[in-house]
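Long-time lurker. I teach an intro course on protein structure, and each term I like to show students one example going from raw sequence to a predicted 3D structure in token notation. This year I'd like something fresh instead of my usual example. Would anyone be willing to generate the tokens for the chain below so I can use it in lecture? Attribution to the forum is fine with me.
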Amino acid sequence: MALASLAASLPIAASAAAAARFRFRIGFRGMASASAVGAAAGAPARVGVVQMTSVGDVDANYATCSRLTKEAAASGVKFLCFPEVFSFIGSKDGESVKLAEPLDGPIMQRYCSLAKESGMWLSLGGFQEKGPDDSHQYNTHVLIDDSGKVRSSYRKIHLFDVDVPGNMVYKESRFTTAGDTIVAVDSPFGRLGLTVCYDLRFPELYQILRFKHQAQVLLVPSAFTKVTGEAHWEILLRARAIETQCYVIAAAQAGKHNEKRESYGDSIIIDPWGTVVARLPDRLSTGFAVADLDLSKVEAVRTRMPIAEHRKFDSDWKSSTKQ
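-- Reply from a regular --
Happy to contribute to a lecture. Here you go:
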């Protein structure tokens, strides 16, 4: 589709100027076919959502991820979702940039081998991918299939540049370059919409994933701060599920990573009606929660409440604002 016609088809919340800044990567190399989506809507698939406390040690974090992957595989999980910055959280500015690698580098290849050995798909949120220059990285959500192949990747679009009340000042853009591509991918677990952490506060991204690109499952790997997590984590996730009638799988960092950084935790899976269907009993523990993802429930909710047919803002409306 030409960019001009694509921009014209976007929800009104996304202006033509904003639309021109983003590319759209759909499926593996094309739009999801009805048969592909229908095939994914068969028997329920067991998925897992990880909660962990990453530290400034790549090997220690990999050991945790490897252990959890093997335990999840033994529990029948076929798709395991890890939180943002799963492989490394440093205590000093610029540490992650020095560590950043391309997706075919040794760190990610280690996780590719883990996926293959476990016969499991992995969602790896917030990997430090080598950026466009030596001073910047990308915050990249990587999807690996059960053969160990990187099936798709999404570079975080919305960067966390905020002064959190009662907390500290964060400026992710100092060391991170924002992505410009919205990513939806076919999988055995339905059509996946890839996002990362702070993206959660921008509902138009999820609206595009659902209504333009037929997402059925939204992935939100995160490392929410303790302050923002207490205030907004669950309510925002449930809102995204309800608004889009999608499953939401939100893997979270938890607890103190070092003297400077603490994450809220509370990894959860939410169904398309907005109900939490899986979470760890302890918000700060390391482990995983499991749910059977049933895409027939997605279709049932959408059929009974057909909001896709009722939406009014797919085209320009007359404005009452006078200049």
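Some talking points for your students: Residues 1-20, 26-40 have pLDDT under 50 and may be disordered. The longest helix spans residues 226-244.
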